TrEMBL record:
It holds the Pfam family Sugar_tr. GO terms for cellular component: plasma membrane. GO terms for molecular function: sugar transmembrane transporter activity. Keywords: Cell membrane, Membrane, Sugar transport, Transmembrane, Transmembrane helix, Transport. This is GL18609. The chain crosses the membrane at residues 21-42, 62-82, 94-113, 119-140, 152-173, 179-198, 270-290, 310-328, 335-354, 366-393, 405-424, 436-455. Residues 23-459 form the Major facilitator superfamily (MFS) profile domain. It is found in: Cell membrane. It is a multi-pass membrane protein. SUPFAM superfamilies: MFS general substrate transporter. It comes from the Eukaryota. It comes from Drosophila persimilis. The lineage of its organism: Eukaryota, Metazoa, Ecdysozoa, Arthropoda, Hexapoda.
């Protein structure tokens, strides 16, 4: 029975898929570590506002918003940097680079003497995250089979969310100075594993004319051995030849992406859904709330411990991401996006009403309601808007402009990250938590309507097609 299960093409432990799975797990070590850096801030920021465990406090709204938003500025930098280098250096070298700024973050956290150290540390964390969100989806889409590509791409956000929960826990329960040295083990293991086990993408090697190396890489990721059945080898190599022909046709112009390619009919059809994806992903507040979750609960009218509630949310977030890995290649991207946007809209609008009435009425007996509503928001948001975001973004663009268009889109997304992280605390202060939640819920409701009419299903789409 297990033999039949492992023989299924969409089984991750299928013989053909094993090195693809190993590669996905290895490169997501940095995703886990990045998530720890994100989640760590939420409980730590509350500690730094009073009775700080280090030599300074972070009290003003200006300092709080800039500690949070420097991650977005770093993300833009990382997007542009990796987007520029990816085609020249290849995925492996870019993956190795990600460990460097992330490691510097934890050195700055440990040796921090003022809030400026945290600004720079969060900037460096953003460079790693921004670069990761460029190279991971593109690299995985190039080495993965179409029937499991969505699952592997969704593992990126699952890994980040595992790290976020870890960050919530260590930030709440461990001493400030113990955390950096513990977390530094992850980027070190990641760097060594990339050197030992990761090979360059066969698509990249074909693009730069290294056909023999591309064939070896292809055989590695598809787990093709010289001793395999000759018919199986021939079928696999036909697949490689098809990839090679598709990437090298019109060889003299294969790297010449022109303005005309960006205004072709397939490209123009992709821009509207891509823009709404970006807006929904960030202005629904899902990522922003992860960074300020403890503050949200402390202002929600709930009497539950904010840090405990935050840890519960971290666990719910992992569940949502895990569901994405199970359903992304079964239900498809569009259905998960519709369920996600509708659920986020309902949850946030309801959360806004609770906090509004909590200002007037005694709702202490209903203190569990904010936790339930935020859990719904995070769970449903992660099964689509977060978990499927990078999968959809990469798949939605035509082949010729895919890498550049996805890179540009993620730069725009990182700009939105910076904007949201900067203005969210200010909106909570000046508008109040209720109006802030209603605004985010309204964005999600609009996105639901748009996706219902204009988002096309891309499940099973070949990466060699428009």
């Amino acid at each position: 029975m297990l033999g039949r299960l492992f023989a299924r093409p969409n089984c991750l432990l299928n013989r053909r898929n094993r090195y693809q799975l190993l590669t996905t797990l290895i490169i997501n070590l940095i995703s886990v570590s990045h998530g720890i850096g994100i989640g760590w801030l939420s409980p730590t920021l509350r500690k730094l506002q009073s009775n700080s465990p280090i030599g300074f406090e972070v009290k003003s709204e200006f300092e709080i918003s800039w500690v949070g938003s420097m991650l977005g500025m770093g993300s833009v930098t990382g997007n542009i940097l990796i987007g520029t280098l990816l085609g020249r250096l290849g995925s492996k070298r870019c993956l190795l680079f990600l460990a460097i700024p992330h490691s510097c973050l934890w050195f700055l956290v440990y040796f921090a003497q003022s809030v400026e150290y945290l600004y720079v540390g969060r900037l460096l964390a953003g460079i790693t995250g921004g670069g990761m969100y460029i190279v991971h989806p593109i690299f995985l889409s190039e080495i993965s089979d179409a029937n499991i590509r969505g699952t592997f791409s969704a593992m990126v956000m699952l890994s980040v969310n595992v790290g976020v929960l870890g960050g919530y826990i260590v930030g709440t329960h461990l001493a400030y100075y113990d955390i950096p040295w513990m977390v530094l083990v992850l980027p070190l293991c990641y760097f060594i594993s990339i050197l030992l086990f990761i090979r360059e993408s066969p698509m990249h090697l074909i693009r730069i004319g290294k056909y023999a190396a591309a064939e070896r890489s292809f055989r590695y990721y598809k787990n093709i051995k010289d001793g395999d059945n000759i018919n199986d080898q021939n079928r696999s190599m036909e697949e490689f030849e098809h990839m090679k022909i598709a990437l090298t046709k019109g060889d003299d112009k294969k790297d010449a992406v022109t303005f005309k390619d960006f205004v072709s009919r397939p490209a123009l059809r992709a821009y509207g859904p891509a823009l709404v994806l970006l807006i929904a992903n960030q202005f629904s507040g899902l990522f922003t709330m992860v960074n300020y979750m403890s503050d949200i609960f402390s202002k929600s009218g709930s009497t539950m411990d904010p840090d405990t509630s935050t840890i519960i949310i971290g666990a719910v977030q992992i569940m949502g991401s895990y569901v994405t890995t199970l359903l992304c290649d079964i239900c498809g991207r569009k259905l998960l996006m519709l369920v996600s946007t509708a659920g986020v809209a309902i949850s946030l609008i309801s959360f806004g009403f609770f906090t509004k009435y909590a200002q007037t009425y005694d709702l202490s007996e209903w203190s569990w309601v904010p936790l339930v509503l935020m859990s719904m928001d995070i769970f449903l948001g992660n099964i689509g808007l977060v978990g499927c975001f990078f999968v959809c973004l990469v798949e939605i663009f035509p082949l010729k402009i895919r890498a550049k268009a996805a890179s540009i889109a993620i730069v725009v997304c990182s700009s939105f990250v910076f904007l949201m992280l900067n203005i969210f605390p200010l909106c909570m202060r000046h508008w109040g938590i209720s109006a802030t939640m209603w605004s985010c819920g309204g964005v999600s409701a609009f996105s639901f309507i748009f996706f219902a009419y204009f988002l096309k299903e891309t499940k099973g789409k070949s990466m060699l097609e428009d």
